[in-house]
Structures are given as structure tokens and as C-alpha cells.
TrEMBL record:
UniProt keyword annotations, A-Z: Membrane, Transmembrane, Transmembrane helix, Transport
Membrane keyword on record: yes
Primary residence: membrane
Residues spanning the membrane: 47-69, 81-102, 108-129, 136-159, 227-248, 318-340
Pfam (any one): PHO4
Localization of this protein: Membrane
The protein's name in its UniProt record: Anion permease
Membrane topology classification: Multi-pass membrane protein
The organism's place on the tree of life at top rank: Bacteria
Keyword Transport appears in the UniProt entry: yes
Length: 353
């Protein structure tokens, strides 16, 4: 007989999928910001396009990022249902708060920070695996820079290769190409962000004694997986549904306030740059902020028209949101753990081990 009641585990899995859904509402708005700003697609068409590729990503990439989340950031021996629940609740609260404030912060950093805060309250600093955090913190710094550099370079390549083509013809061409670049970005976003929730669910099931429901070896469209198929499909479905709901307050910030008058050429370059950045991180099995990637890429594209073409005040606002996420989400996660330790544990009758 399991020490952790199955009903509690099912509840936490449902909250994890709720977080994944909110990730779609909060972060996946970035998937459609540029293509809406350039008027290639209407908002309704754009979210449907992005949601489709968010889900298709389940059949394209592996689950290396999920492994990083479940094993490499927090000591598996410390992980418990209470840490996972506190981490999820902390991240959900942080996402709702920043959504209300229209701050395009990272759901990725919110969840890992909130989990870390809960683990720190339970077991102290030894619960944090520094070797696993090193690449995460590295990409925190370099991912917006990579996106910015690639956006700047791709925009120059596009401008150089089309300078002899009439502007209207070139614009029409890149309106079509932007469908490809937006799809590529959403594909990368879907695989990197949905895998974070996969990793959380796997960690929850393993730490609660239900590991047989978490892992199974199978092949999906030529890709070898060790995470159960139901986890993969449910996480991608949740983030795709969240994308369908949309987050237009953040779309406005990301698409038009960073660099106004974004055109199809610029949208194509920004989305392609962000897709490359996310793909690099996914290949390295690192959970990356897709907000970092697209924000940096849009800024890089805008900078090709001169430094003053980028509204750096909005870029700074985004950076402030990123900086606040680590301590803010960690604090909320730690507080939720204390609350659960005091209230839920006596009711359930299971030690917060």
C-alpha cells in the first residue's frame, strides 16, 4: 500500500496540468506576438496556428528537458508530493500575478524557482543540485543574447537578399514565410515548455511511489521515449489549449511595444532566431525561457534600424520581470510549503518526507 493517497497525487497531477495550461496562456502568447503585429494572421488564426504546433511538438522531439527537471535540479531524495504541490501553487500564483500586471515573465523560471523555494524550506541548501542549475543559469544570461544576435543577423541577411526585389513583392513573400517561422517557433516552444510539466509529473509520481505510471519505454513516430505516453500527450494538449485561450495583454507588450511597426520580414527573422535559440537549448536538455528567446530576437531585429528603433524601456521592464521571478516565485513556493506542512499534512496523515 502506498504511503501517499492516490487522490492527493491525482489532485497534484491536475494542478500540474493547470500550470501547463496557464503556461500556454502566459508564455505561448509570445508564439503569436510577431505574426499578429505584422498582420499576417488575425489573433484567432494565430493562436490556432500556434496551438497546433504546440501539440505536434509531442511527436517530434525527445524528453531530455523533462529528465533535467525531474532529476537534475532538486535532489530526488528530497522531492515529495508537498514540494511539488507547493512549487506548482507558487508558480500558478506568480503567473497570475504577472499576467495581471502584463509582465511577460518566464513560466519556466517561475516553476523551477518555486520548486527550489519549497525544497530549500524543507531541507536547506543541500536539496539544490548546483551542477544541474549551472546550465539553466547560463542560458538565463545567454539565451536573450543569442536571440538578439541571431535576430540582428537574420534581419540583415533577409534585407541583403531582397534589396533588389520590389518592397510589395518581398512583403508578400515573407507574409507566407512567416507562417513557417511562426510554426517553427511554436514547435520549439511546445517541446521545451511542455517537457517542464512532464518532468514535474514524473518527479511527483516517482517520489510518491507510483513510478509505474510515470515511465514506460516506447517509440513514438521514430522517437524513443521513457516517459509514459499519457503524460506526454496530456502535457502537450494542456499547453495547446492554453495557447488557444491566448494572453493578449502580453502579446501587446511583446509585439508592438518593444519595437513598433514590425513588418513580415522582421517577424520572420525574429521568429526564426527565437526558434534556433530554443532548439539549441532543447538539444542541450536545458529548460529555457521562451520569453527570453523571442524578446531578445525582437530587440535584435529592431536594432537593425538603429538603437532608437527599440523601445528599451519595455525591454527593461521585461528584464525586471525576469530578475524578480527567481526570488519572488521561490518565496511564494516556500510559503506554500510551510502552509501545506502545517495544514495538509496533519489532515492527510502522511509525513512531508
Amino acid at each position: 500500500m502506498h504511503a501517499i493517497p492516490l487522490a492527493l497525487v491525482v489532485l497534484v497531477v491536475a494542478i500540474a496540468l493547470l500550470f501547463d495550461f496557464l503556461n500556454g496562456v502566459h508564455d505561448a502568447a509570445n508564439s503569436v506576438a510577431t505574426i499578429v503585429t505584422t498582420r499576417v494572421l488575425t489573433p484567432t488564426q494565430a493562436v490556432a496556428w500556434a496551438a497546433f504546433f504546440n501539440f505536434v511538438a509531442a511527436f517530434v522531439f525527445g524528453t531530455g528537458v523533462a529528465h533535467t527537471i525531474s532529476n537534475n535540479l532538486i535532489d530526488p531524495a528530497v522531492m515529495s508530493v508537498y514540494i511539488v504541490l507547493a512549487g506548482l501553487l507558487g508558480a500558478v500564483v506568480w503567473n497570475v500575478l504577472t499576467w495581471y500586471l502584463a509582465l511577460p515573465t518566464s513560466s519556466s523560471h517561475a516553476i523551477i524557482s518555486s520548486l527550489a523555494g519549497a525544497a530549500l524550506v524543507k531541507a536547506g541548501s543541500h536539496a539544490i543540485l548546483l551542477r544541474g542549475w549551472a546550465p539553466v543559469l547560463l542560458f538565463l544570461v545567454i539565451s536573450p543574447l543569442i536571440g538578439m544576435v541571431l535576430g540582428y543577423v537574420f534581419m540583415h541577411i533577409v534585407a541583403w537578399s531582397t534589396y533588389r526585389i520590389p518592397r510589395e513583392r518581398a512583403s508578400k513573400l515573407f507574409r507566407s514565410l512567416q507562417l513557417f517561422s511562426a510554426g517553427a517557433y511554436s514547435l520549439g516552444h511546445g517541446t521545451n515548455d511542455a517537457q517542464k510539466t512532464m518532468g514535474i509529473i514524473v518527479a511527483l509520481l516517482v517520489s510518491s511511489g507510483y513510478s509505474r505510471y510515470a515511465t514506460s519505454r516506447h517509440v513514438l513516430f521514430g522517437m524513443h521515449h521513457e516517459i509514459s505516453l499519457w503524460i506526454i500527450l496530456s502535457c502537450h494538449a494542456a499547453i495547446a489549449l492554453g495557447t488557444m485561450i491566448g494572453g493578449w495583454r502580453i502579446v501587446k507588450t511583446m509585439g508592438s511595444r518593444i519595437t513598433p511597426h514590425l513588418r513580415p520580414m522582421g517577424g520572420f527573422s525574429a521568429e526564426l532566431a527565437a526558434a534556433f535559440t530554443i532548439g539549441l537549448a532543447t538539444f542541450a536538455k536545458v529548460p529555457i525561457s521562451t520569453t527570453h528567446a523571442i524578446g531578445g530576437a525582437i530587440s535584435g531585429v529592431g536594432a537593425t534600424r538603429g538603437v532608437h528603433a527599440v523601445r528599451w524601456v519595455w525591454a527593461r521592464r521585461i528584464v525586471y520581470g525576469w530578475v524578480l521571478t527567481f526570488p519572488g516565485a521561490a518565496l511564494i513556493g516556500g510559503l506554500f510549503y510551510l502552509l501545506l506542512h502545517v495544514t495538509l499534512e496533519p489532515l492527510v496523515g502522511v509525513a512531508a518526507r
